[in-house]
Design goal:
About 40% of the residues lie in helices and about 10% in strands. The chain is an alpha/beta fold. The N and C termini lie far apart (about 40 Å).
């Protein structure tokens, strides 16, 4: 198996990749590919969730951060926490996932706009192309920089 076989995986930059929920054995592939941090935005009861994910990830020598974001209720506080985590690990290779790479797409969109100054069109390239955000996520994506400012 390779990291390319992980559900909805996207290599976004040299240091950031995103995906849906990896399978237990795929965390070894993520570590082998040089990733040092796994950030999970899925809820513990999300589809495909692995109850012992934190233990599995740390077994492979990676750091694990879990920011549970309810799919129907993402908040600016969740996003602020995510941005802080990404800043802390900015010099390391980070793999960010949720159940299907939808939540992650929205969070990385904002991260790229706020932290790296990307335009709307440039930041949209960080989103899973096949995802069609519903009203909840359209509102989340429409938050202004001022709404999100730390």
């Amino acid at each position: 198996m390779t990291i390319k076989s992980i559900r909805n995986s996207i290599q976004l930059s040299e240091n950031i990749a995103s995906s849906g929920q990896p399978k237990e054995e795929q965390f070894r592939d993520i570590a082998t590919a040089g990733y040092r941090v796994v950030v999970n935005l899925a809820m513990p009861n999300s589809d495909f969730a692995i109850p012992e994910e934190g233990n599995i990830v740390t077994t492979f020598g990676m750091s694990y951060v879990h920011i549970p974001v309810p799919f129907k209720a993402p908040t600016v506080e969740h996003l602020r926490q995510f941005i802080k985590v990404m800043k802390v690990y900015s010099t390391q290779k980070v793999w960010v996932h949720c159940a299907l790479n939808y939540r992650v797409s929205a969070f990385l969109y904002h991260f790229q706009r706020l932290e790296n100054g990307l335009s709307h069109d440039e930041a949209k390239k960080w989103m899973l192309e096949s995802w069609k955000p519903d009203e909840v996520w359209q509102a989340f994506l429409a938050m202004s920089d001022a709404d999100v400012a730390l």
